[in-house]
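Hi W.,

Here's what went into the run:
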Amino acid sequence: MTTLKRTRLYDYHIANGAKMVPFAGYEMPVQYNLGVMKEHLHTRVAAGLFDVSHMGQILLYPKSGVIADAALAIETLVPVNILSLENGRQRYGMFTNDDGGILDDLMIANRGDHLYIVVNASCKGNDFQHLKNNLGNEFQIDMVEDRSLIALQGPLAEEVLSKLNPTVKELRFMDSITANLLDTECWISRSGYTGEDGYEISIPNSAVEEVVQLLSQDINVEPIGLGARDSLRLEAGLCLYGHDIDINTSPIEGNLNWAIQKARRAGGERAGGFPGAKRIHSELEVGPSKKRVGILPDGRAPMREGTLLYGSDNRNNPIGKVTSGAFGPSIQKSISMGYVLKEYTDLETIIYGDVRGKLLAARVTSIPFKKSNYKK
Amino acid sequence: MKFTEEHEWLLLEDGLITVGITKHASTELGDIVFIELPEVGTSVTKDEEIVVIESVKAASDILAPLDGEIVEVNEILNDEPSKVNDDPTGDGWMFKLKIENLSDLEDFMSEAEYNKFIG
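Here's what came out:
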């Protein structure tokens, strides 16, 4: 049995009544005293504080000192336009494999003389090795071990964080800057994974507890656990790696076409040149055989991960499977995402989920379920 | 009021057994979002799964504590399942069961025994 790791905020979690669970090799808070439902709703109206220090932070320095060299290098691993990413901006992307499957999804920021990459906790070791193996000696690649990562999410996040440094007000969605909090250098981006406005903040380990304590003293802030993080991101239609996307799904099947800019598509300035380009270009052109869609069950019963989907109210052949499903606290409905065959992807198509042996009707719907509230 | 090892409470009223889940169980389950109740008139056997409770965390089953017939269910829970969190031993009751021998109730735990059971 391997020992679970703890983040620098472990004591903070315990002091706030967290129920700790194993997650990606870490002991993480699944909920605090408020409980999942209230934590979710709080984040939608005020500000929720999340410890995401288990996620991987990686720095990629071009030894040439030319950032375009790093951008072009990482473009060999992601189907995303990184060369056009300006200093102080970040972009969503994914590492693909030769079959066009997704190895991980990630955020890439241009921080002037290097790229800052944030990856999923469960994949971070592999991602680091993947970069090392593929990018060669002209780059210095470091896993950041001396910093923690927190997220402050919700409509009052700006008001709360700007009390510590008013500069953060000026950031727009997906801006990524260096700014001091309590005289400590932090890397702050206006982003998150809840569908709300908010920030993700990389803080030196030596200062993270102090910053978090200060943020927590604000009456509008509550600590939020993994349980609510999951229902928030599901309402926002965002993928959870290992569930909604994985090594067997392509970005096109995953309905992430928007993340692949024109420059990397067929006919673009830097078309292809990433693993799995052949499949991904082909799916962009003719459409994938199955696709991730939103699923809205008619009743309140949640259709959870693994629920088999059928095209009619008998069990002839499954047409797909649910990959995430829960009750959406903000929209007060059961919501799911999953993959269905292309014949069933039209909005309002009636499909059926096998819930405990009963076939329950649901409709294919657009995602997000809850409109995002980003500061564009 | 009597208690089962499955964290249900049983209350004898007018010859019928009202059944719900305990405060301890409702806290452990977390926020309840959906409850599937049995149909009135259903005959049930002891340990049969007759109620499904979905919380924000997972689905769990409630077992029939005894053989009997469902004579009433708490329809309000269809629209307001959170009543089980708010008042598990009152407004959050789930169903009423008609059983053959009321003396079977004696086999279950008292409140003091249940509190000891959950530690």
